[in-house]
TrEMBL record:
Name recorded for this polypeptide: N-acetyltransferase domain-containing protein
Region spans: Disordered: 1-27
Top-level taxon: Bacteria
Pfam families linked to this entry: Acetyltransf_CG
Domain N-acetyltransferase: 20-107
InterPro entries with a match to the protein in the record: Acyl_CoA_acyltransferase (IPR016181), Gcn5-rel_NAT (IPR045057), GNAT_YJDJ (IPR031165)
Species this protein is from: Deinococcus reticulitermitis
Length: 116
């Protein structure tokens, strides 16, 4: 597993487009070769939490599950860092609601805000 200060990545060979963490840009990115297909922004906010404010999949690539791959990768990465999530992005909040294994990443006192 890459160290915390190194970009995370997944294997493109077995799973299609590649998802990586771009610390410089403050976002998780999904690419096919050199083509950026979408991203999920993140911002460390202190107290061991990460804000996820916005997720976007570019026009023409919607409906392929790319947003879900970004969400899963981001949440798994944040979990691996031992941090909590503030899912301000409606897509990420909905993903967590649909994938209850990620609810634990949201502070218990904030879960009601997100309907969890």
């Amino acid at each position: 597993m890459p160290e915390a200060d190194q970009p995370e990545t997944n294997s493109p060979a077995a799973s299609g487009p590649e998802v990586t963490r771009n610390d410089e840009q403050g976002r998780y990115e999904i690419r096919e070769g050199e083509d950026l297909l979408g991203f999920a922004e993140f911002k460390p906010i202190g107290g061991g939490a990460v804000l996820l404010p916005h997720t976007e999949v570019f026009e023409g690539r919607e409906g392929e599950g790319l947003g879900s791959r970004l969400a899963r990768f981001a949440l798994d990465d944040i979990r691996a860092q031992g941090k909590q999530v503030v899912p301000m992005c409606p897509f990420i909040a909905r993903y967590i609601a649909d994938h209850r294994e990620y609810v634990e990443l949201i502070h218990p006192q904030q879960r009601g805000v997100f309907g969890l």
